[in-house]
Amino acid sequence: EKLIDKNSSDFYGRNILKSFAERHIYFTADGKTLFYPDKNEYQNNELGVTIFFKKLKEDKAEAKKLDSEITKYFVLDDSNKSKIFYLKGKDGNFYQNDFNDNRVKIAADVKDFWINSSGNNILYINKDGDIYLVDAKGNKDKIDSGSKIVSVKDNLNKIYYTKDKSLYFKNSGKDREQIAKDVSDVVRIYDSGEIYFAKAEET
Question: 3-state secondary structure string, the chain?
Answer without folding.
Answer: CCCCCCCCCCHHHHHHHHHHHHHHCEECCCCCEEEEECHHHCCCCCCCEEEEEEECCCCCCCCEEEEEEEEEEEEEECCCCEEEEEEECCCCEEEEECCCCCCEEEECCEEEEEECCCCCCEEEEECCCCEEEECCCCCEEEEECCCEEEEEECCCCEEEEEECCEEEEEECCCCCEEEECCEEEEEEECCCCCEEEEECCCC
